[in-house]
Amino acid sequence: MTNLKVHSPAPADLEGDLASLRGDCARMAPHWTAPEKRAARPVPLSLIHGVTVPATAARLLEAMPEYGN
Fold first, then answer.
1. What is the pLDDT of residues 39-58, one digit of tens each?
2. How far is CA 60 from CA 34, 41, 52, in A?
3. How far apart are CA 11 and CA 52, in angstroms?
4. Contact yes or no for 34/41 (Cβ under 8 A)
5. Are 13 and 20 in contact (CB under 8 A)?
6. Distances (CA, A) of 6 to 12, 27, 57, 61, 63
7. pLDDT given at position 67
8. Which of 1, 12, 14, 30 has its C-alpha lying 20 to 30 A from 39's C-alpha?
9. How many CB atoms lie within 10 A of CB 67?
10. pLDDT in tens, 29-43
11. 10: Cβ–Cβ under 8 A, 6 or more apart, which residues?
């Protein structure tokens, strides 16, 4: 079993509020980088095949006014 030791400038506040959570996030933000943005390309219809939708999901979408009409 590996014992991972984490060194933090401030202890985690498990009972904290939103301000505490935002502070924790602000301290961690420099440790992560966002991936490079790539333009989304449309998928050719010839590559979309074999898609099945369960009947329950189809009925659920059909019952939603923005999708069913």
1. 888 888 888 888 788 888 88
2. 35, 29, 15
3. 48
4. no
5. yes
6. 11, 14, 44, 46, 49
7. 59
8. 30
9. 9
10. 888 888 888 888 888
11. 23, 24, 27
